[in-house]
Amino acid sequence: MQYDGVLFSVNTRRESPQKMLGSAIRERRLELDVSQEKLAELVGVHRNYVGKVERGEQNLTIESLVRFADTFKCRPSELLGEAGL
Amino acid sequence: MQYDGVLFSVNTRRESPQKMLGSAIRERRLELDVSQEKLAELVGVHRNYVGKVERGEQNLTIESLVRFADTFKCRPSELLGEAGL
């Protein structure tokens, strides 16, 4: 059976945007040296929410992204850029 | 009655992020010179959705933002930056 030489890549062009953003938020949190629970308190969200976001299980809205960015005292576009998006 | 000199400003620090992003998406669409209906087709969303997004009535998710950015062939962080976010 002749393949056309293009390996079928399970990975799409990028990791899921949610996973990429989750990693960037985790990095920012670790830089702040705070727990997920403390970050949740600072952002004003449920403490489990931060864990889900960091694991890439949450499709954040722009409003939530703005709240995280405000907490990290950076611009939302900056946080997305750090995520590689 | 003595005011403390600080004018109560209805506008918060910024317009709503949804409105700011909606304007940036509208600008990109007009640059492409396509209708809302055509953009909806390109992005793969319902045609009314683009109107709601442009009017700032839709709190986009990151996944939706990525789809608009991919359609405009720019990075999601770039689109947010153009929105002033």
TrEMBL record, chains A, B:
Residues 25-79 form the HTH cro/C1-type domain. One of its GO terms (cellular component) is cytosol. Keywords: DNA-binding, Transcription, Transcription regulation. It comes from the Bacteria. InterPro entries: Cro/C1-type_HTH, Lambda_DNA-bd_dom_sf, TransReg_Diox_bact_type. Pfam families: HTH_3. One of its GO terms (molecular function) is DNA-binding transcription factor activity. This is HTH cro/C1-type domain-containing protein. It comes from Pontiella desulfatans. The lineage of its organism: Bacteria, Pseudomonadati, Kiritimatiellota, Kiritimatiellia, Kiritimatiellales.
